[in-house]
Amino acid sequence: MTTTVAIEPRGMAHCETTALGVLLRHQGIDLSEPMLFGLGSGLSFLYWDTRAMDVPFLAGRVKPFVLTANLADRLGLRLDVRETASPRRAWDNVAAALDAGRPVGLQLDSYHLDYFTTRVHFGGHVVAMYGYDDTRAFLVDTDQQGGAVTTGLASLAAARAARGPMTARHRSFTITAPPEAPDPRERIVPAITACARAFLDPPIANIGHRGIEKAARLVPGWLRRAADPRRDLPQAALLMERAGTGGALFRNLYRDFLGECAGLLDDPRLRAGHELYTEAAEAWSRVAALVAEAGETGEQGALDRAGALLSGIARTERAAMAELAGLAAGGAPPAAPRP
Questions:
Q1: For the chain, which terminal residue's Cβ has fewer other Cβ atoms within 10 angstroms, N or C?
Q2: What is the average pLDDT value for the chain, to the nearest integer?
Q3: Domain 78-176, architecture per CATH
């Protein structure tokens, strides 16, 4: 027996926004991926390093599921989250929603999914599930992973039960839009200013603009820090550009979000932020290329140039966020969409 929910299985660049897009379109809300990412105040930065890691990790977004919670709160959506230590109850939570005709979001470890192209443990991966039969689950993942895909029920259970960094306890969630949901255009300024304030005033030195400044100091030492530079540095660069980030460590997505907003709001600070994030996105892609080059050639100069670029990126992003934080002082009201 097969149970499926009628959805539009549109894969996107990033896993969490892909799943959100599926669930929101089912509720009649169709937003671009950059708008989903931006309204969820998804942009951030974290320099993460522990002794157990082969090479430090550069994260360009908020923690998994924070984007979803932010977006639901900002748009007045009902977010029904289920977590449990029981695999049986976890399956019942998902099956009940699907049997009732509702797609479900799942947070899990991508390592166990049958279709995943790169087998690495990542407990913050998010997919939308829209059906199942006796042996398979029907999922929507990113374009890179195939969009509408299937995985065995056993592999899905293992992915949901995994424990480790960023994992959740069999987390599943559904979204319900109220009859009178706020106009997303009215929520642009609060989303941008919340993101800017968090970036400008991070709680520790590893986060936000301070984290990028720290990366500028430490990335030049990665040839010595990496366990296997020829393997680890190209992999780090790949994660920045292609591992569901939309390119440039999520800066391409935020650049496009600001560009879309600039077409809706007439504010010079917004246009300035868009221009600065266009510059930052280009620089991040150059950093990734230099990190990969250093791993492939062993050339220290490539990492030195990456460090210098990161210093400039920290200044650029801090200036952009300072402009965007000023929107709270009286951003212009939303304009009618352009034809």
A1: C
A2: 94
A3: Alpha-Beta Complex (3.90)
